[in-house]
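[RESIDUES AND BACKBONE]
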Amino acid sequence: MYKVVPVYLANKLHAVHPLLAGHFMSTLVEGIIRITILVGFVYAASLMKDMRRMFEYHGAEHKVVFNFESHQPVTVENAQRFTTFHPRCGTSFLIVMMILTIPIYALIPFTAMLPMILTRIALIPFVVGLSYEIIRFAAKHPGSLMAVITAPGLWLQRITTKPPADDQAAVAILALQGAMALEESQGGELVIA
């Protein structure tokens, strides 16, 4: 869905308008299609009652992580004071990956469909690693250029996170405590990237 369909549609759009025929424009259109598919899928999922509830738990997770990182006692009351929009969220990570693929794929000279798709698959580890590092850097340096790149991920969290009820925040606290206990039992300390 995110590799073949965007490449296929971008290649088909060459015939629609000559402006879309260049390699860079084709890669840009492909990236826009990819992001549109993701946002459309997430939005459609958010309309489902069960998904809304899951997004409330997602918001609870973010609030509890913020509470933990603040070094205040992790309680429902403290957690509920924080926002549901977290800079190191998986949602932000996905959007950063999709944005990064545009300039990265533009550097790949292939124009035939099969080599384009195979190259995009082969570059997944590189794009994932680079996206992870950008997310981490942006979270530590909120005023940087990297924070601008991660902003669309925070915008998308308006769909993927919802304000949780107190009982959902309590569940997120139990999950954090469980993760901390697991780390401790394995001889480590819970480190949140």
About this structure: The chain is about 70% helix and 0% strand. The two ends are 29 Å apart (CA to CA). The mean pLDDT is 90.
